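Consortium newsletter contribution from the modelling node. Members have asked for a concrete example of what our holo predictions look like. Here is one, prepared for the magnesium ion complex that several groups have been discussing at recent meetings.
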Amino acid sequence: MNTLKGSDIHAAKSFLDKGEVVAIPTETVYGLAANALDETAVSSIFRIKDRPTYDPLIVHFCDMEQVLQYTLDVPENALLLARAFWPGPLTLILPKKNTISDLVTSGQKTVGCRMPDHPLSLGLLKSIDYPLAAPSANPFKYVSPTTAEHVITQLEGKVPYVLDGGPCRVGLESTIVAFNNDIPHVLRLGGITIEALQEIVPETILRIQHVPNSPVAPGQLLQHYAPTVRFLPIQTKNNPTEWNHNEGVLYFKCPESLPEELNSKHIKCLSQTGDVNEAATHLYSKMREFDKMDLECVYFEWAPKEGLGLAINDRLERAQSK
Ligand code: TXA
Ligand code: MG
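And here is the predicted structure:
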């Protein structure tokens, strides 16, 4: 199959209308999208991603009216969060109607609902009359793509079209929130911070569990989002002043004076100024760059424990667990 890349919503639509899978840009990461109402198209997503069918897909909608068409008994606090953050990097786990098939949700009675804040994907969603099931457009367990080029590198020949919306503005996946008796539980840290959620619903709690390998806890697999090269916290280095040529370093903030022993191409920084939002945008591309360098390991610096720093540290922890 020939993979085309471009920013033509009509081209993307015509592949999707035929039941094909198309990579789409969002503000968080690129997604691998298909008609959520077409089981054959949805199975193709699992096949292309090499993703086990026990890991449910989230569904992308163009507006609230469409979300309410496919969900039931939406909790009051979910409506408040949707009003505050949609379109935006927040996925709400809501009870589903039968029109969303069990294949999409891996048999769960809930569906992950998201409204992406990207003009191309929103324009595409408005141009079609079905929602789009879309996981991140990476092979299962690898880090998510944040540019169209990342998608092409891994999925060339497997999808007919990559809708190119440029580099993703946020760079980390959406925050996932489930509800238990109307209380929001954060299952995955992402583009909307816990502080921001608590400003709208103060009772919001964090319920991240990292399980090594379990189909009963969707989204909680520890090794999701991990690069191939070994990542270790910089604090674990025995002799911090001696560096080997086969070691990389990922600083959160660029140090003013860099250790001279380090070959400069082995040193990368997430942010020039120590800004967590800028750092989030760069995290996955830096991980991919290190993966191409044939290093033994990469020592990383943790992000500050605030705002998006918590989501960055969550991904670094998963990278470390590999
Ligand atoms: O930012 C994002 O959320 C991106 C873009 C493309 O929208 N999508 C994304 O999808 O990250 P994915 O499939 O890579 O991650 C979604 C996570 C999965 O780990 C899945 O297990 C979890 O959401 N999930 C999906 N439906 C769920 C449900 N009904 N209950 C609990 N977790 C669910
Ligand atoms: Mg993913």
